[in-house]
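Tokens for Electron transfer flavoprotein subunit beta. Go.
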Amino acid sequence: MKIMVAIKRVIDYAVKIRVKPDKSGVETSNVKMSMNPFDEIALEEALRIKESGRASEVVAVSVGPSQCVDTLRTGLAMGADRAIHVEFPGTLYPLSIAKIFKALVDAEKPGLLLLGKQAIDDDCNQTGQMVAGLLKWPQGTFASKVVLDEENKVVTVDREVDGGLETLCLDLPAVITTDLRLNQPRYATLPNIMKAKSKVIKKLTPQDLKVEIKSDLEVIQVTEPPKRKAGVILSSVDELIDRLKNEARVGPQWKRPHIIERGARRGYVRSNIIQTIER
Ligand code: AMP
């Protein structure tokens, strides 16, 4: 069975984001770019499934400008067998990406499509769900555990939901999006980085896949979040409760005052709690 993994090139998670002066987006020039962290987890999971003998090939796919090749090379160095780059220099939105993935799945026929639960640049959390809808495949989103049963053509997915763990059994082929706790991605070793140089990266365009890229939404403006106020250390629980009541306007609907009191007694509740409650 073949596994296809979506890999997006995004601003590195450790970079401090700067908004462009004209508020049209965030600054991406001269900024370190990396593989979307949730996609690293998706790739790691695909590699583990292959290493356990339950898949024969891992294909990494990225859509975007020419520099996506660098991100795909990282994926190949981690262990993907080959890669596909769908080159498109402009802005892309989840529905366009999902249509491209559908076309790639129709051509490549993988048994499993793995994506990150969300891209950390646009935070859309839509592409996996959309492509599952377009393919009419079952989907397991926010996976924290994946167990593939190739013989019975099913995959079991644990999802961390508000009330606990939800376990789904999906018929293959299926779409899975990965959550943070699924695994710890490996680093590419030097020999594998060298080996990756000779692995194949196929180039395609949306036209080759007969996908028309239309902008289905418009970003009106991007602004920085308001600056956080400096914290203050309060002298007593009474003062904290007074501030919660009169500044943060937390009334009797506040369900768990004992937690605040307990925290305040331990000395680690500062005014940022007030800010949290205000939000
Ligand atoms: P999003 O819906 O934008 O939050 O993205 C969710 C997931 O879809 C990401 O974690 C990637 O796995 C995949 N994805 C989104 N955009 C791209 C892209 N341009 N190239 C490859 N994969 C993508």
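The longest strand covers residues 139-149.
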